[in-house]
Structures are given as C-alpha cells and as structure tokens.
Amino acid sequence: VDRAHYAPSLPYQDSPQPIGFGATISAPHMHASAAESLLPFLHPTARVLDIGSGSGYLTHVLANLLGPEGKVVGIDHIPSLVDLARANMAKSEHGKELLANGKVKFVCGDGREGWREGGPYDAIHVGAAAREEHAGLVEQLRAPGRLFIPVGDYNQYIWVVDKGEDGQVKREKRFGVRYVPLTDAPNE
Fold this sequence. Notes:
The protein is of the alpha/beta class and 188 residues long. The protein contains 5 helices and 9 strands; from the N terminus they run E-E-H-E-H-E-H-H-E-E-H-E-E-E. Helices cover 23% and strands 30% of the residues. The strands form 2 sheets. Strands 5-4-3-6-7-8-9 form a 7-stranded mixed beta sheet. A two-stranded antiparallel ribbon has the order 1-2. It starts with 16 loop residues before the first strand and ends in an 11-residue tail after the last strand.
C-alpha cells in the first residue's frame, strides 16, 4: 500500500503527519506495530474494525492481510475524513476493488462505541488515544479476539486486550506512545 496515497506531505517519514481536522496519520512504525500485534487474529475470514480510520491507510493494510472472505470496517466520526479515506483508497486499482467488492467499508460514527452491525470482530484497532478502555469494544470482540488501543491523557500506553476462546479477558500494557485523543467530532 503506497503511503503517498494517504499522507499529504512527507509520506515516507517515520513520524505522524497531519491529515486535517486535528487528525494525523500515525507514524509507519506504529502502523507496523499495530499490524504485527493483530496479525495472529487476521485469518482469511476475519472481521476487523479500524476505529479512527482517518486517511484509510491502515484500513487498507489490514485488508491486505486478510483472505478473500475477510472484511474491514473503518470508522471515523468526521464525515470529511470518511470521504477522504474512500478517495485515498480509490487512488489505486486494488483499493477501488476492495471498496467495490465490499471487503472494505468506511462508515461515519462514534468509534468509542464500536460498530455493532459489523461484529463480532476478530481484531479491533484504535488509532487515537482513549481516556479509558471502552468496555463496549471488548464486548464486540469475537472469542478469541484482540483489541489494540492507546489509552491515557498525557501518559499514554498501548494496551493489548485479548478475549480468549472461553470469553476470559486479559489485558497487557505494552509501551508508551503519543497519539491524538479519541474525541467528539468537531464542527466541520
């Protein structure tokens, strides 16, 4: 997936880049870390939710890691970013195909509440820092499933939340990060 289709400036620099509306596209190393963490749950028929999908880059990457029956829903609370993600994905023939065949879908909504109609999900990625883990997201995980979420205000950490086959939930604090906050939609 060519990051230049998704980042308006310095697409290959390993740092977050602004995409408008107070949002950023995460640094490439963070996208790699998220994808690597979720990879054990990205089987050929997996259902994936990408919260705070922004420019659509990681949504496209995650779709490429699934089989032909897998599906990814990208959700953002800013309508203009949802439109941007669709337009960015349509810059490549493969992206157009993913949109046309329904393997990737972008929706507008409050990602803090997840997207129940597409679940349960084998993997959920959150691309902005939540003040706390949202129980509703864990509820939308399939058993087994994994949630990758940055949590905190100033001191933020990546948390990996696993739901086992038996429904038991385990949480692991991984490493410190700096993300934009998961917020209410601004007035456009």
